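pasting for ref
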Amino acid sequence: QVQLVESGGGLVQPGGSLRLSCAAEGFATSSIPMSWYRQAPGKERELVAAITSGGGSTNYADSVKGRFTISRDNGKNTVYLQMNNLKPEDTAVYYCHLDYTPHWGQGTQVTVSS
């Protein structure tokens, strides 16, 4: 059974940083692209960042370019999202996704507030 287990969310002040992790259990993810999405209250889920299977290519939403970095460690079956210079509008539940599959993480809350 495939599980995506997220961690690293929390409360941070504007300008602060967090690193999210998503560990895949029960499945080797090295051949599959992965993504991070987020959903704020009252809004649709949106793509934040994506990374190819080998990690050689990444893509970001315009709203996070230059602030967020997606990476992966295929040896650990884990994808990361480093978030710097966080803003209140980054507040949302963040989900990792194993692309082209129905598998999603359970979500981790990120709250940016002073």
